[in-house]
Structures are given as structure tokens and as C-alpha cells.
Write a structure and sequence with these properties.
By secondary structure, the protein is α/β, with parallel strands linked by helices. The chain has 10 helices and 5 strands; from the N terminus they run H-H-H-E-H-E-H-H-E-H-H-E-H-E-H.
Length: 264
């Protein structure tokens, strides 16, 4: 009888050890799966959204010059990992050449916000008048980028002496409306062309542009503030014989826009 009881106790002990061992391994597997799942979710979140972007903490400071709706769009896009789309159109001085103000602005945005936060598309029109550009919709490809911001220089220097300022501003209105059809929440910024020596009638057109911007709720970006006085001989050192900005002019233009876009 004792021998039988001993055998039963031994058998139960062995079963308990086997069951406990299996249960322990089962719990380990469950814990490991849960850990892997958690790691996978974390990695996916980090890969799809730059919430931990090293410059996110400065976003409010960087965007302080922007209107509130644009600030919210930029902050939301950074959190979603989506680029903020900036479209730039203008005369021949809107160039993507290596030393251009456009490329210098791109570099400043990448440096301050982080690379890829801003997706910049730029297109310059060398000789066309504003009314021709608006009539032929020569900017259709830029519209398709669906920009969050449109920075436009409305071909004032191209038009100067040839097209009435009323017609230039009318063409500007058409262009903006065309963009707004695709991007109704887009912020519009307007800026003058390159300043030249003793601009006279051209300066009057620039003043009309500033008034138009204020009247229509557009942001007027006056980069002329960062150039020498147009009535001074010093201004001649900032553009070439074709009235295009040279190295000094591109730097002056880019510095002003770079400061505006980064909260300085």
C-alpha cells in the first residue's frame, strides 16, 4: 500500500513539474509576442510621423511671422510626417540656379526646420508679360503640387513700361484664383521683383502691389528692406546688366525671406 501511494505521489510530482514548465514557457512566449508587437507599433509610428523631430520644439518660434491658419497647417503636417508645400513663381529672377535666392531659402528652411519639412517648387518666367502668363495658364504644373503657400512675384519688372499696373494686378488676381481652386486653404504671399537704380514708375507699381496685397488680405513680403536704397548708386552692385540679382542681390533677397520664414 505504501509503495502504491509513493508511486502515485511521484507521478503527481512529475506531472506538476511538466505542467509548470510548459506553463512557464507559454507565459514567456506570450510576453515575448507582446513585447515584439509593442516594438513593432512604436517603430511604425516613428517611421511614419516625425513627432520626435529634433526641431519640433521650435516650431512656434519659427512660424511666429505667419498667420495663425498657416501656423496650424505647418504644425499639423510636421506631426503627420507630411511636407509643407511651398510654391514660388515669378520673373526670371525666380531661379533655381545654385546661388539663387530660391536655393538659399531652401537651404535655410532645411537648416532651421529640418531637411524635407518644406517641399519647394519654383518656376520663373523670363520674358513673358503677366497677362500672357495668366491667359495661357503657364503655371498649371505648379498648381498641381497643391501648395500650402504660394509666394508670387507678379512679373512687375517684366511688365514695367509695357503693361498698365491695373492689368498686372488683374492678372495676379486670375493666377491666385486658379491656385485657390485646387488649394482653397493656401496662404498667398506676394513680393516685388528685384529693385533697380532710380526705379521711378516701377517703384510706383511696387507701391500699388503693396496696396493691392493689403486690400485683398495677402501677405506682402518686402525684401527691398534688405537692399540698399534704390535711389543710391550702391544698388547697382546688386544686379547685373539684365536687371537680374547677382551674388549680392541673391544674398540680400534670401536673407530677408529666410528671416521671415524662420521667425526672425
Amino acid at each position: 500500500m505504501k509503495r502504491v501511494l509513493y508511486s502515485v505521489v511521484c507521478l503527481l510530482s512529475i506531472c506538476a513539474v511538466i505542467f509548470g514548465n510548459r506553463y512557464y514557457h507559454h507565459k514567456l512566449e506570450q510576453t515575448a509576442k507582446a513585447a515584439k508587437l509593442k516594438i513593432g507599433k512604436t517603430s511604425a509610428a516613428e517611421g511614419s510621423s516625425p513627432v520626435s523631430h529634433p526641431r519640433d520644439g521650435n516650431t512656434k518660434k519659427l512660424t511666429k511671422n505667419f498667420p495663425d491658419p498657416l501656423k496650424k497647417i505647418i504644425q499639423a503636417k510636421i506631426k503627420k510626417g507630411e511636407p509643407v508645400k511651398l510654391a514660388i513663381i515669378g520673373s526670371a529672377d525666380t531661379s533655381e540656379d545654385p546661388g539663387s535666392w530660391v536655393n538659399q531659402l531652401k537651404q535655410k528652411l532645411d537648416e532651421r526646420y529640418g531637411e524635407g519639412v518644406f517641399d519647394v517648387t519654383a518656376k520663373g518666367f523670363k520674358d513673358d508679360w503677366s497677362i500672357t502668363i495668366a491667359e495661357n495658364k503657364e503655371y498649371k504644373d505648379v498648381i498641381e503640387t497643391k501648395p500650402d503657400i504660394l509666394l508670387i512675384e507678379p512679373f512687375l519688372l517684366n511688365d514695367s513700361g509695357e503693361i498698365r499696373v491695373e492689368d498686372t494686378l488683374g492678372a495676379l488676381g486670375i493666377i491666385i484664383d486658379d491656385f485657390k481652386k485646387k488649394s482653397p486653404k493656401m496662404t498667398v504671399m506676394v513680393q516685388p521683383s528685384v529693385p533697380i537704380y532710380k526705379p521711378q514708375g516701377y517703384a510706383e507699381q511696387v507701391a500699388e502691389l503693396k496696396t493691392y496685397a493689403k486690400k485683398n488680405g495677402l501677405i506682402y513680403v518686402n525684401h527691398w528692406d534688405n537692399w540698399p536704397d534704390p535711389n543710391s548708386e550702391k544698388i547697382k552692385a546688386y544686379y547685373d546688366k539684365d536687371s537680374l540679382p547677382n551674388e549680392k542681390g541673391n544674398r540680400a533677397w534670401a536673407e530677408y525671406l529666410g528671416d521671415y520664414f524662420t521667425g526672425n
